[in-house]
Write a structure and sequence with these properties.
Length: about 300
Amino acid sequence: MKDYLLISNTTENIINDFCLGLVSSHIEKSTNEKISYRELSPRKAYEWKLTSNKYDLKLKNIMSDFQINYGIDCNFIETTEMRKKKLLIADMDSTIIREESLDELAKQIGKEKEVSFITNEAMNGRIEFKKALIDRVAILKGKSTDILETLKKNININDGARELVKTMNMNGSITVLVSGGFTFLTEYLQELLGFKYAHANTLQIIRNECQKFILTGKVEGSILDKKAKLNYLNQYIKKYNLNQKDSICVGDGANDIEMIQHAGIGVSFYGKLALKKVADISFNKTNLLGLLYAQGYTDKDIIRP
């Protein structure tokens, strides 16, 4: 069985010959083998193929220090025969998009401070997600649905999201957006980015006496939480006759923990500490192209929008 050491930083282009030589020397000392690196993206991403039982915990500790000292993400990736995954499940808020959608809705009505506090507590796992969602949605009661359209116009897609979805689609993978956010936004992003499927919560909307559409401050049906995200992972594995090793899942908060733990590769993307503790790999200096590099894709393989 082979493992890979992936180093990456897509924001600063700081991976130079010195860094590459240093990592190679540490690997050689740990394995007693001279192992060449493979360039995935010039100055941004490189990997070394390692024999699983030929490197030790000391190398992992050294690379952890290297990561801190040089500002470069370092991840050890266990692989199966098929490195390129057949199923991608991605969180939406602070993962595919830069924003937390409920926080942005609250900002439009002057309630950002109280809502963002609840969001942060929930994403760090300090309060239960369902309660946090119900409390935040209640603040939107009586507001026009115009705020939903305004949000769609103002969100920012995280770097690498378009390439990630398009490349995996073109390579025959199933791409799924699963969010504790809301369908008005996941459906928009599904069409914009090309996700095959999308799942989220549904905001309850009514027409008031003035024939205007307003939010009731409630969610329709059951709430999509961390257990639901895991259920969707299992559902698509079964639907397409896959196994867990065929999947890669990415998120940033406590609500993503269960699907991350059960994925073939579970990725923390600029994640909260609670998620980093259980994720297989973590990106803090690398955009969403990191998920492709983790599967062995190079820049030449990536499909650009």
